[in-house]
From TrEMBL:
Domain of life: Bacteria
EC numbers, comma separated: 2.7.7.12
Provenance organism: Microbacterium lacus
Catalytic activity: alpha-D-galactose 1-phosphate + UDP-alpha-D-glucose = alpha-D-glucose 1-phosphate + UDP-alpha-D-galactose
Residue stretches making up the Galactose-1-phosphate uridyl transferase N-terminal domain: 101-223
Database matches in Pfam families: GalP_UDP_tr_C (PF02744), GalP_UDP_transf (PF01087)
NCBIfam families: galT_1
Name recorded for this polypeptide: Galactose-1-phosphate uridylyltransferase
Gene that encodes it: galT
Length: 389
């Protein structure tokens, strides 16, 4: 065992960075008052060298970039508990994390983007930071490719084999939020990165391949299509759009939870049968810009929201919890941090599938009126005990 360099973050969280056997970054985030000692095991596995970075191809009909990451076909798929790759290593389980931990973040072994950052490989040129000239990401032309530079990280919320963010203690939730903030700032500073996206996929119906409580962070070499559309809407609607949205929603009967710093609501034009947005009360570009007070309130409020979602039915509800953040270099004063939590579950035993209209044309049809969804969610949240940090 060895003792790694430490860094003290907010809320008493301690950061301990190290490296895995193949050079990938691994960072432990210790809870305040953790029972873990300062020492951690060294990763002594013999691992193959990291694979080549994937290649992006541009869809000339939409302008979207598609990362073709064939190595992801070999990633773990619903392994048994004794072979959980996100659990602490044991003599019979050579997992990704050498030591017992509270929260751990590491580079994905099968990433969609990276490990290359500003470098090219093969015939695909590297992303340009910032993009310039004829090689710009938006330049026209058939058959255009780029190296899928970037970074993909796994955020392990707990050493336990099963669970989700909503099953964490308030203290552990606060540690994860501190990790999100730390990694958002670090990834945004890497060369070639234009947007950072923390998220949690929960449930096999969403496509989750590991039941271990975890999320991910993607650092993209471009501004994502969804955010590009948002930037265009801000130009159309005005720079104060999010301020007006928050006031509009707070004055509606779609509000679910409201604190000093955050409000959770079902949006006016919800697409999904279960859709909740959680937004800070001031202009904040990303999680790294939030204050200690905002993070302290977020931990119990977000837990209560997730536990309310699970109180709707007798079984846990699948969802995507997507933290939308401003791009690294544009929209910092207008794009506001927000969580968008969506689920295809439209009844206890029914899912909404994206069929012809939604999948093929992007023309959505809502199954549940947002006001009705909000009323059910409020009742479920009211059945959950208060959560305090």
């Amino acid at each position: 065992m060895t003792e790694f360099r430490t860094e003290h973050l907010g809320a008493g969280v301690v950061k301990r960075p190290t490296r895995l056997a193949d050079g990938r970054e691994l960072i432990y985030f210790d809870d305040p008052g953790t029972t873990l000692g300062p020492e951690r095991n060294v990763d002594t596995r013999t691992l193959d060298p990291r694979g080549e970075t994937a290649t992006m191809r541009r869809d000339v009909l939409t302008g979207d970039w598609i990362s073709v990451a064939a190595a992801r076909q070999n990633r773990a798929f619903l392994p048994p508990a004794e072979l959980d790759p996100l659990a602490p290593q044991t003599p019979t389980n050579p997992s990704e994390i050498p030591s017992r931990y509270d929260v751990a973040v590491f580079e994905n072994r099968s990433p969609s983007f990276g490990p290359a950052l500003a470098e090219a490989h093969g015939d695909a040129p590297a992303a340009v930071d910032p993009p310039t000239g004829l090689d710009d990401l938006d330049a026209p032309g058939l058959g255009r490719t780029r190296t899928s530079v970037g970074r993909c990280e796994v955020v392990c919320f707990s050493p336990e084999h099963e669970g989700s963010f909503g099953t964490l203690s308030p203290t552990r939730a606060r540690t994860v939020i501190e990790a999100w903030a730390d990694r958002t700032a670090a990834l945004a500073a890497l060369p070639g990165i234009q947007q950072v996206f923390p998220f949690e996929n929960r449930g096999e119906a969403i496509g989750v391949t590991l039941p271990h409580p975890h999320g991910q962070i993607y650092a993209y070499p471009y501004v994502t299509p969804r955010t590009q559309r948002l930037l265009a809407q801000l130009d159309r609607e005005g720079a104060d759009l999010f301020e007006r949205i928050l006031a509009f929603e707070q004055d509606s009967d779609r509000v679910l939870l409201r604190g000093e710093h955050w409000t959770a609501f079902v949006p006016f034009a919800a697409r999904w049968p279960l859709e909740v947005h959680l937004m800070p009360h001031r202009q904040v570009a990303d999680i790294a810009e939030t204050t200690d007070a905002e993070r302290d309130e977020l931990a119990p409020l977000y837990l209560r929201l997730l536990r309310g979602v699970d109180a709707l039915y007798d079984t846990p509800t699948p969802y995507i919890a997507a933290w939308h953040q401003a791009p690294v270099a544009v929209g910092r004063d207008t794009v506001r941090l927000r969580l968008e939590l969506t689920s295809p579950r439209r009844a206890a035993d029914k899912l909404k599938f994206l069929a012809g209209s939604e999948a093929a044309m992007g023309a959505w049809i809502g199954d549940v009126p947002p006001e009705a969804a909000a009323a059910k969610l409020r009742a479920a949240i009211d059945s959950i005990p208060e959560v305090t940090l």
